UniProtKB/TrEMBL annotation:
Gene3D superfamilies: NAD(P)-binding Rossmann-like Domain. One of its GO terms (molecular function) is oxidoreductase activity. This is 3-oxoacyl-[acyl-carrier protein] reductase. Coiled coil: none annotated. It comes from Capronia coronata CBS 617.96. Belongs to the short-chain dehydrogenases/reductases (SDR) family.
Length: 264
């Protein structure tokens, strides 16, 4: 059994109070790290993680001044920043562009996409001084193609991927690796209240279920770790096979008996 991969590493996580970010925080701590969580609200995360290895900073990733203060507070406290995991995101109402509230559109792009920019422009110079660093961003399978009714969210997440790739190119020779994960559907507070829709989504996932946030967090930890030392500029899809198909329905169910080899 290999040893812990993050002993004494300093991990800055946005959206770490809930869902995927909370699971990732717990896993990082299990592997020896200190986590510095930036989120809009604390939501009891310090009780779960304990204050010895976790710090909470209340801030909005959509505000450049909050991003700067939070990263500076992390570096002031720990003396360094090894890994930035930008995972916070604002969900979106499902609607079409003509009905999309203008301010809400701007907020979603600002939180999800601009947040990565605001954080990276403070984190990268620190990593340059350290001559090493890792950034992981949480995008989504919504970044990989158009998504019905999800204009702002899909645009923000797709933008994150090309920002991630560009920063990866620009900083590859400085020993800074930058990658993204693209989760498919996970039951978390963000996806609560979808009701009947969940069944439809789960049915369309080849593995037949949503992802446990821990399964996605483990992929984020892989990218953050030395196990991914030769990976940069990549989007790692963690979606139970959702994005593996072409978009065509599963016609196997409808093929007449005489054409089926497997059931003769
Ligand atoms: N749940 C899914 O099905 C799913 C699918 C694909 C991608 N994702 C992505 O995974 C990431 C985590 O989502 P989750 O499902 O764990 O959601 P979640 O709602 O459980 O957690 C998101 C956290 O981000 C925080 N946050 C939101 N806006 C913020 C802001 N402006 N500043 C600081 N913190 C902010 C929230 O307070 C919350 O604690 C997000 O980037 C989301 O887009 C989720």
């Amino acid at each position: 059994m290999p040893g812990p991969r993050f002993t004494d590493k300093i991990i800055f996580i946005t959206g770490g109070s809930s869902g995927l970010g909370a699971e990732a925080s717990a896993l990082f701590i299990d592997e020896g790290a200190h986590v510095f969580i930036m989120d809009l609200a604390e939501k009891g995360i310090l009780t779960r993680l304990g204050e010895e290895k976790a710090t909470f900073f209340q801030g909005d990733v959509g505000k450049p001044e909050d991003c700067e203060s939070a990263i500076r507070a992390c570096v002031d406290k720990h003396g360094r920043l090894d890994i930035l995991f930008h995972n916070a995101a604002q969900p979106t109402p499902m609607t079409t562009v003509p009905f999309h509230d203008l301010v809400q559109f701007q907020q979603i792009i600002n939180t999800n996409l601009c947040g990565l920019f605001y954080l990276a422009r403070i984190a990268i110079p620190q990593m340059q001084v350290q001559k090493k660093g890792v950034i992981v961003a949480t995008a989504s399978t919504s970044a990989l193609g158009g998504e019905y009714g999800l204009a702002s969210y899909a645009a923000s997440k797709a933008g994150m991927l090309n920002l991630m790739r560009t920063m990866a190119l620009d900083h590859a020779r400085e020993n800074i690796r930058i990658n993204a994960i693209c989760p498919g559907y996970m039951p978390t507070p963000m996806t609560e209240g979808l009701g009947e829709l969940v069944k439809v989504v789960e049915e369309s996932i080849p593995q037949g279920r949503g992802g446990d946030p821990t399964e996605v967090a483990r992929a984020a930890l892989f990218l953050a770790s030395e196990d991914a030392s030769y990976m940069t500029g990549q989007a790692l899809i963690v979606d139970g096979g959702w994005s593996a198909h072409s978009g065509a329905p599963n016609l196997l169910k409808y093929v007449p008996q005489q054409f089926r080899y497997d059931e003769k």
